[in-house]
């Protein structure tokens, strides 16, 4: 497993640009909210820790991960953000629905990155079970939301 013995939340603040002048969007799926709320908290805390102002962090909720693409697109079009973090959690079930949702969500977010000049960071956990999701949303592997927020800062300054 790629994250074996690696905590995703560790970053060197001295190597991250200051986010004080940047505006961020976070679009959060309400599905599997135990996980997505933890991811959101990790992302928000990292942005604030790196200098972002709370009034410059905008949160929108969408019903599920499949809807993240549309939510991010509308945020790009209306909120003048420098970067967006798309937060979701898809946990494998007994049907192929998991594969369709994961593929469509990843492709949709990729398409936004190709179409618009606002980076959209993919923070969608695609795990086999709830234990894996918990381990990556504040558990033994840290918080993928934190990692996504750091990537958002780094990508936001590329275009400035």
UniProtKB/TrEMBL annotation:
Presence of the UniProt keyword Heme in the record: no
Active site, renumbered: 97 (proton donor)
Binding site for (2S)-2-hydroxy-3-oxobutyl phosphate: 94-95, 136
SUPFAM superfamilies, per database record: Lumazine synthase
GO CC terms: cytosol; riboflavin synthase complex
GO process terms (BP): riboflavin biosynthetic process
Superkingdom in the source lineage: Bacteria
Annotated signal sequence range: none
Reactions the enzyme catalyzes: (2S)-2-hydroxy-3-oxobutyl phosphate + 5-amino-6-(D-ribitylamino)uracil = 6,7-dimethyl-8-(1-D-ribityl)lumazine + phosphate + 2 H2O + H(+)
GO MF entry, a single one: 6,7-dimethyl-8-ribityllumazine synthase activity
InterPro entries reported in the protein's UniProt record: LS, LS/RS, LS/RS_sf
Pathway: Cofactor biosynthesis; riboflavin biosynthesis; riboflavin from 2-hydroxy-3-oxobutyl phosphate and 5-amino-6-(D-ribitylamino)uracil: step 1/2
Keyword entries, A-Z: Riboflavin biosynthesis, Transferase
EC number, as in UniProt: 2.5.1.78
CDD domains linked to this entry: Lumazine_synthase-I
Binding, 5-amino-6-(D-ribitylamino)uracil: 31, 65-67, 89-91, 122
Function of the molecule: Catalyzes the formation of 6,7-dimethyl-8-ribityllumazine by condensation of 5-amino-6-(D-ribitylamino)uracil with 3,4-dihydroxy-2-butanone 4-phosphate. This is the penultimate step in the biosynthesis of riboflavin.
Family: Belongs to the DMRL synthase family.
Protein name from the UniProt record: 6,7-dimethyl-8-ribityllumazine synthase
Organism: Flagellimonas marinaquae
